[in-house]
Design a protein that fits this description.
With 242 residues, the chain is α+β, with helices and mostly antiparallel strands. It has 4 helices and 8 strands. It is elongated, with a radius of gyration of 32 Å.
Length: 242
Amino acid sequence: MNRRIWTAAGLLAIAAMIVTLVGLATRPAYAQQTPSTTGRYVTVVGHAEVQARPDTAIIQIGVDTEAKTAKEALDQNSKQSTAVQKKLTDLGIDAKDIQTSGFSIYPTYATDGRQLTGYRVSNAVTIKIRSLDKAGALLDQVVQAGANSISGISFTIDNPRTLQDQAREQAMRDAKARADLLAKAGGASVGDVLIITENVGSAVPLPMSAVRTSGAQDSVNVPVQPGEQTIAIDVQVTYALK
């Protein structure tokens, strides 16, 4: 009887050992991703900003028309929209930089909200202007071609990679300087880099409010000021201490 009990207990112990070994073998090595709690290290955040003039403008250009019937409003809108998009092409905007971003047809009513007065059609495209020195003249000419709604202008840097790399290097130098200062104050010195975490950001320009125009032929070029855009990099770096 005792022998049977001992055998069962032994089997249970062996089974528990197997489960433990399997669990250890399959457990992810999370401990390698963080510094040892018994070691000495310092974690700092390095920050850098790089300013540059935007080279691209993104603008929404639209045509709004109203008529007694939906067909009349649509026909008029299609004619004006076609003229506007042809003008954009003539002005050097590539087809890949012109994208329809809104289209709608809806009824209009009198002030009492019950009497139908007609229909309104809206057709808008979002364009990318890559030559900012020509943006003002372009806006003026598309208005003359039939556009009567311009909104959402914003500026961006088409290829920010080089500027981001500059900011990364500066952020790492800033992190090292902070770590050196803290380590010295604590009676230590900075050793190897253990962990680097990056956060990339940029200042988002405020969009221009919607502008509606009657398309006067004697208008002058629209003044466009892109200003500067800021590319910011933050790096959190953990260094070993010596």
